[in-house]
Design brief:
The structure holds 2 protein chains of 2 kinds. Chain A is α/β, with parallel strands linked by helices. Chain A contains 12 helices and 13 strands. The relative contact order of chain A is 0.13. The chains are: A alpha/beta, B alpha/beta.
Chain lengths: 361, 327
């Protein structure tokens, strides 16, 4: 079990990512300010070595944007990402250029000029992403060997043929594709959905990363195969001490292997805590509603469900006050005007709701 | 249940001729009943024949498929003996379908209200204004705001499209609704909304529903009875309560154990090693034998027959006891 004392692999502080919306020509000519979509709005969390953190929320809540920002596919608008203590360099570069304003409001301080930092390429050796759809994330015209060996090629690792062969073989076997050699010449279309997702995992594992960002890795798979992939990820974590950021909309799948859960709504974390605490004692009304609609595979356990009406509002138009208030079943007057700060409701368990008692931060 | 079933499928078998000329047995001896106002869950992994069963009942199978044996009795009338013209009167008015993948099943260049109106006008003698009124009623029933009825599918979210699909299926007031994976690819909250909507509509209209899904959680939430399919056969059927609490077939048992459950203590999930058989390479004995953790010698050579293990509960496994089930 990871302890809070162990070194954090990933520290995200006050991360903001906004996108500019396309403007009409007329609006641009009239010099109206462009609308922006705040996909991720002030999110902070820490991931320790060997820890699995589940990021849970509905479509459009910003969970995939977080993963894409972490791996450098998007540039953060503000905030800081540190990997193994080193700040990710795209930000350092921007800070040096005086573009990135930090929480303090300062730009490009001396500290940033001397800070140890990590290039995106080096980051990706240590952090790999597993995408949702194994039918679309594999090159249909490349063999399994080429797919898994490509990251080695890109990073210039294991240049010798024998060494490369050995790395690919190990990665495939670790991903449960045995005997590995029999998969070398195969193409993705010859594989089942579960096998494809294993190839994707092997392609990520071949670099021996410390962090996996898994974006809904099982939602496209059949139930019986989901269990296999989840067990595989647990196994990798146990044997390799790998950390996993597991992104999903389904609280049911995370209950079995996440250490901590962070629930996201419209770009913000509304609750986070140890898996047991969040599932047994959910504090935020949104978490409660999400939990109540997780299907339970037994008709005798059918229970009262809190079905929220409507859909997650548009991130271009975030409601004032608490962003959850228009859909909240227990909304109060205060929620419409004031955004609730986090209240600490237990050990490393916090939630942002005005109904909660506890020290606020 | 003493009342006559609305739909009885009996010994339905379907063969496919594959591109390379091979013969595939997609369905074999499939039998089940659907009762008025009730929901049957048809459960199984991809490729087990769930969708083929629906298509065979609706007689919408592709040209390379052939129904070899069986009957599909709707209110006692065998649909397989009808002419195509007569069948056309059945579809939509008596039974309709909510197709898998609401993203692709709607016409992208036609407004939602037009699509529903078109279905009504094709099947009923009605003036345009009457049809428009009916479209309004349907939209209200499925919870689509009036002002959004005239929009195109791309302007709808996934949940809204699924609502539109349901309105489209209900356009001609059928008695039986097939829903093929209606909530797959939807978020849990939207999934809950859609299931709730189906339940409300069922209560209001007394519809019978056949819900096709691989998600045992969805089935447990809404179904009265369940038929579990594997490799083109029904391997177990019964009331939802008995299937979930006293599963008889090893496949059902494993499937239930592989479902992540919030109420079960954390630990390793049970998975089912291997993959379902291809329709052209079916094992000679029990189709689940190669993946079964309880197989015995006879399973590899002889296909088990369906047994009545308790009243209304049937399973096809050599380890089960009971008289042969009669259909």
């Amino acid at each position: 079990m990871p302890t809070p004392e162990s070194a954090p692999v990933l520290e995200v502080s006050r991360l903001v990512k906004s996108f500019a919306m396309r403007q009409s020509l007329l609006a641009a000519l009239q010099r109206k300010p462009a609308l922006e979509i705040r996909a991720v709005d002030d999110v902070s969390f820490t991931l320790h070595r060997g820890e699995v953190l589940a990021l849970v929320g509905e479509s459009g809540c910003g969970k995939t944007t977080i993963a894409r920002t972490l791996i450098g596919l998007e540039e953060p608008t503000s905030g800081e990402i540190r990997f193994s203590g080193e700040i990710v360099s795209a930000q350092v570069r921007r800070a040096r250029a005086g573009l990135l304003s930090l929480d303090s409001g300062e730009v490009g301080t001396h500290e940033h000029m001397t800070m140890p930092h990590m290039s995106l390429k080096r980051l990706r050796q240590h952090a790999q992403m597993i995408f949702q759809d194994p039918y679309e994330s594999l090159n249909p015209r490349a063999t399994v060997f080429d797919i898994v060996a490509e990251p080695l090629h890109v990073h210039g690792i294991a240049r010798q043929r024998q060494e490369r062969l050995e790395r690919v073989r190990r990665a495939l076997e670790d991903a449960g594709l045995r005997p590995a050699e029999s998969f070398f010449p195969r193409y993705p279309h010859e594989l089942s959905g579960g096998q494809r997702q294993r190839v994707v995992i092997a392609g990520a594992m071949v670099l021996k990363p410390e962090l996996l960002l898994a974006d809904e890795p099982v939602s496209m798979l059949d139930v019986s195969i989901r269990a296999e992939i989840l067990n595989l990820l647990s196994e990798l974590r146990r044997q390799r001490g790998i950390s996993i950021l597991f992104i999903t909309h389904d609280l049911g799948t995370v209950s079995h292997f996440a250490d901590r859960i962070a629930v996201m709504y419209l770009g913000r974390l509304v609750e986070s805590g140890a898996t047991g605490d969040v599932l047994q004692r959910p504090q935020h009304p949104y978490t409660r509603a999400l939990l109540s609609v997780v299907p339970v595979a037994n008709p005798r356990l059918r229970r009262e469900r809190v079905i929220l009406q409507g859909e997650t509002p548009n991130a271009a138009d975030i409601p004032a006050g608490c962003r959850f208030h228009p859909r909240c079943p227990v909304v109060m007057e205060r929620c419409r005007h004031e955004d609730p700060p986090y209240a600490s409701v237990g050990t490393r368990h916090m939630a942002a709701c005005w109904l909660l008692e506890g020290p606020r931060r | 249940m003493t009342e006559a079933p609305l739909l009885s499928v009996r010994h339905l078998s379907v063969d496919f001729i594959m591109q390379d000329g091979q013969m595939g047995h997609a369905l074999e001896d499939v039998s089940f009943d659907v009762f008025h106002g009730q929901t049957l869950g048809l459960v199984g992994e991809s490729g087990c024949g769930k969708t083929t069963t629906l298509m065979a009942i609706m007689r919408l199978l592709p040209a390379n498929a052939r129904i070899t044996t069986g009957q599909v009795l709707y209110n006692g009338q065998d649909l397989l003996s009808l002419s195509e013209r007569q069948m056309r009167d059945f579809r939509w008015k008596e039974m309709s379908i909510v197709f898998q993948g609401a993203m692709n099943a709607l016409n992208p260049v036609m407004r939602i209200d037009e699509q529903i109106g078109e279905a009504i006008l094709l099947h009923h003698l009605m003036t345009r204004s009457q049809a428009a009124r009916r479209v309004g009623e349907l939209m209200e029933m499925v919870g689509i705001p009036r002002e959004r009825a005239g929009q195109y599918p791309h302007e709808y979210s996934g949940g809204m499209r699924q609502r539109a699909m349901i309105a489209l299926a209900l356009a001609c007031a059928p008695s039986l609704l097939f829903a093929d994976e209606p909530t797959t690819a939807l978020d849990v909250m939207i999934q809950a909304q859609v299931l709730e909507l189906l339940k409300q509509i069922q209560e209001k209209l007394g519809l019978a529903i056949v819900l096709v899904t691989h998600d045992l959680g969805v089935v447990a939430e809404v179904c009265d009875s369940v038929a579990v399919m594997y490799g083109g056969k029904v391997v177990e059927s019964g009331s939802a309560d008995s299937i979930y609490n006293a599963p008889q077939h090893p496949y059902t048992e494993r499937l239930l154990q592989s479902f992540p459950d919030l109420n079960r203590p954390a630990g390793s999930l049970v998975s089912i090693p291997g993959t379902p058989p291809r329709v052209t390479e079916l094992p000679p004995g029990c189709r689940f034998e190669p993946r079964c953790n309880k197989r015995i010698e006879i399973c590899a050579t002889t296909a088990p027959v369906m047994l009545e293990t308790s009243s209304g509960h049937r399973a096809a496994c050599h380890l089960c006891q009971g008289p042969a089930a009669r259909f």
